[in-house]
Amino acid sequence: MGDEIEASADAQLQKRRQDEVERVLRHSTLDPFGILGVAQACTPDDVKAAYRAKSRLIHPDKTDHAQARDAFERLKQAESELMDDEKRTSIRAMMGEARRELLAERQKQAAQDGGPAAGEGSAEFEAAVLAKYKSIMVDIEWRRRQKLKQQMAAEGRAAAREEEAALERRQRRDADKAWEDTRDDRVNSWRSFQSKAKSKGAAKRKKPAPY
Q1: Which is nearest to 56 in space by CA: 102, 103, 20, 98?
Q2: Is residue 76 in a domain?
Q3: How many structural domains is the chain composed of?
Q4: Which domain holds residue 121?
Q5: pLDDT tens, 39-61?
Q6: Per residue in 7-39, pLDDT tens?
Q7: Residue 23's Cα: distance from chain center in Å?
Q8: Per-residue confidence (pLDDT) for residue 7, from 0 to 100
């Protein structure tokens, strides 16, 4: 009898582990509050407690679920983000913004339709808030990547201009060096020319005038 009870308890625990892995994986990585199962007003202590409890359930060494490692990594990421005061505040702010935008949209639509707006707190409304939040975050990420692409393009153009300028400076230095290297030859050629010109002039002066 005791063995049966123990086996039943083990089976129930394994079921809980499997269910928790599935629950974590259902949540987007953009929703660390949902992954950890804590309220948005949570404290760091709440985050720690939730992480300890859930990590014991879904640790890959504790369950044979095929995606346990993925769920555990997602859980660790959520804990890391919410333990960071700046990130936690930022995520709260963005979720709050998503809630306000959605509520304004629903109220505007309700006014046009002449019916009641979907109330806050319903499961449907909260799911829509999360979808709106994801949309905002995707848009922010897209804008960030576009800005980075433009910045890299500008840096590439600046680098190309600098490379052209450097090439022009090298060519100028090479030309100056070549000019200096042939200076003695030019001076000697000029002196030789001058010397020959003087000799010819002297010869002409010595030539007697014809009668």
Answers
A1: 20
A2: yes
A3: 1
A4: 10-163
A5: 989 999 999 999 999 999 999 99
A6: 788 889 899 999 999 999 999 888 999 999 999
A7: 28
A8: 75
Q: Indicate the SS3 state at residue 68.
A: helix
Q: The domain that contains 29 carries what CATH number? A: 1.10.287.110
From CA 203, how far away is CA 198, in angstroms rounded? 9
Q: Is residue 26 part of a domain?
A: yes
Q: Which residue has the tokens 């002039």?
A: 201
How far is residue 127's CA from residue 198's CA, in Å, rounded to a whole number?
104
Type of residue found at 150: Q
Which one-letter DSSP state was computed for residue 114? T
Is residue 68 within 8 Å of residue 21, measured between CB atoms? yes
The token pair that represents 58 in the structure block: 């879904």
d(CA 130, CA 191): 90
pLDDT value of residue 34:
93
For residue 30, tell me if it sits in a domain. Answer: yes
Within-domain flag for 188: no
